[in-house]
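cron nightly-structures :: item 1 of 1
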Amino acid sequence: MNTPPASPVATNQGAPAKPDYGWLTALMAQWIEDLNKQYPATLRADGIQGKVTLTAMLHEDGLLSDVRIVKSSGNPALDHVALEDVKNGPPIKLSRPLERHQMPVKFSISYDLKTAR
């Protein structure tokens, strides 16, 4: 009795598994929440609020460099505040190794009159 040859099974043995960075998303969200935002009283008094989306290079020591705005809040003064807040923020305390020297990250910071500290 002849048995048919086994069908080939597709595997990802040649491709390395992509690391799961869900932990980093949660860590960045907490870092932004804890960030000491300098929301100027003059902007608040004028009712200026908004969300600024930024990119940066995250290094394995938790420092951010090359911080840039990718989507403006619509107000240059508020955008500038967001850049300064990130640049002056503490290093991110990584709970796991990045598994590389640096990686790009994208995140948003909101300045909201209702939640302003």
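cron nightly-structures :: done
Residues 3-12 have pLDDT under 50 and may be disordered.
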